[in-house]
Design goal:
The chain is of the alpha+beta class. The protein has one domain. The chain is built from 2 helices and 7 strands, in the order E-E-E-E-E-H-E-E-H. Strands 2-1-3-7-6 form a 5-stranded antiparallel sheet, covered by helices on one side. It has a two-stranded antiparallel ribbon with strand order 4-5.
């Protein structure tokens, strides 16, 4: 289960804190705009609540939620679920699991 997922948009500095709003009870209708994440990324401004999938640079799943060591997120389990879905560039450290959604051309050369 994902407790928290941080988002870095390509056009923002890394210090901007945004969260991916994940709610298992919500339903998202993407019929009319299937390339956008309707109000699923927190913070302001995010293009009036809309952000395209292609604007996400990476997602971070922190091990500790809100800097409280007693509240942990099982990042190994999250990593296994992601790997079941497909092949993604993942980076695991002691404090987080990072899933890269977009890799700039300069970073690959």
């Amino acid at each position: 289960m994902v407790l928290e997922c941080r988002v870095k948009l390509m056009w923002e500095d890394e210090g901007v804190k945004r969260l991916l709003v994940i709610d298992e009870y919500a339903s998202y209708n993407f019929d009319y705009y299937d390339t956008a994440m309707e109000a699923m990324i927190s913070g302001s401004p995010v293009l009036n609540g809309w952000c395209a999938y292609k604007e996400i640079e990476w997602l971070d799943f922190p091990r500790f939620i809100g800097n409280i060591e007693s509240e942990k997120q099982d990042i190994i389990s999250i990593q296994q679920k992601i790997e079941e879905i497909g092949q993604f560039r993942l980076e695991l450290s002691d404090d987080r699991l990072r899933l890269y959604a977009y890799i700039p051309v300069s970073a690959t050369s």
